[in-house]
Design goal:
The chain has no helices and 24 strands. The protein is mainly beta. The chain has one domain: Beta-galactosidase, Chain A, domain 5 (Distorted Sandwich), CATH 2.70.98. This is Galactose mutarotase.
Length: about 290
């Protein structure tokens, strides 16, 4: 086994030191996937990348570092559930619909967590999420987090073992800063194509394929961007120029949406995939993160 504690699993090699929260130990909310909830990434014992969603305890939805979410816009089975009945949130558990109101990802729902089996060594950890049938919906999910050199990989394998199709979306909410430096001058976010923003927050300066910040944000900012071509391999990279260090995420799947969220102390590029699995079928994809100096 890797170095473990009651709350975290540690992966470590000569380049990366990664801490992954045990399901339910650090985060037990109803928004994010409880598995592969990555709270610490350090490169070369010098550069850290994970930041909290909010610096004020109790605010926000509890995100930290690299944490993904299923169904932010398309909750599985929510419309079929009556008040006080359950619906599944992949990676999290069975949530209870409280009333007749629409689903809202930021709301807090009662959670009955999925059972998870964990196996790990010093370079990889595997989360096997056992299926629990809920009104015909049931998914067996395996997520593997592994490190090799300066690269961290998250592999997803989902099998629909229920009687109804699974249709939703997934993205990783990358809560990132470099060595806890405030977002603003010195950061640059790059894409492999010219960015076509739907709207530009005042704090952002967008030219060509780059986003820079005109000043330290005073609050949240959000921008959905276009310009990517369907079917092309996608990546983004965030550089912190004063320390010449960066992070790059490669999306090993066909992307359907790209957005950038952030606030005073963190920036989060978000890359979305459609999840569409017929009964008896599987879907796999990979997110790969490279941490580097230049």
């Amino acid at each position: 086994m890797s170095n473990t504690s009651n709350t975290h699993i540690n992966l470590e090699n000569g380049r990366l030191n990664v801490e992954i929260a045990r399901p339910g130990s650090v985060y037990n909310g109803s928004r994010f996937d409880w598995t592969a909830f990555i709270t610490k990434i350090v490169l070369d014992n010098k550069y850290s990348f994970c930041a909290p969603e909010s610096e004020i305890p109790g605010q926000g939805s509890g995100g930290f570092g690299l944490c993904n979410e299923f169904g932010i816009n398309t909750p599985i089975g929510y419309d079929e559930a009556k008040p006080q009945e359950k619906f599944p949130k992949l990676g999290t558990g069975l949530l209870t619909r409280p009333d007749e109101s629409d689903y809202f990802f930021f709301d807090k729902y009662e959670v009955e967590p999925f059972p998870v089996k964990i196996s790990a060594d010093k370079n990889a950890v595997v989360f096997d999420v056992e299926p629990v049938n809920c009104n015909g919906y049931a998914v067996k999910m395996t997520k593997t987090v592994s490190i090799e050199g300066n690269i961290l990989t998250i592999d997803y394998h989902l099998e629909n073992v229920g009687s109804k199709p699974i249709k939703t979306e997934e993205y990783c909410h990358n809560f990132i800063s470099v060595n806890n430096k405030r977002i603003g001058d010195g950061y640059v976010l790059k894409f492999p194509y010219n960015i076509k923003p739907k709207e530009i927050p005042e704090v952002m300066n967008i030219k060509g394929n780059e986003i820079r910040w005109n000043f330290v944000p005073k609050g949240d900012f959000y921008c959905q961007i276009e310009g990517f071509k369907p079917g092309e391999k996608h990546y983004w990279e965030l550089l912190y120029e004063p320390e010449r260090v960066g992070i790059r995420e490669y999306s090993e799947f066909e992307i359907v949406k790209v957005a950038v969220w952030g606030t005073t102390h963190v920036v989060s590029p978000e890359v979305f995939i459609n999840v569409d699995i017929a009964p008896g079928k599987t879907q796999e994809w990979r997110r790969q993160y490279e941490f580097f100096t230049y």
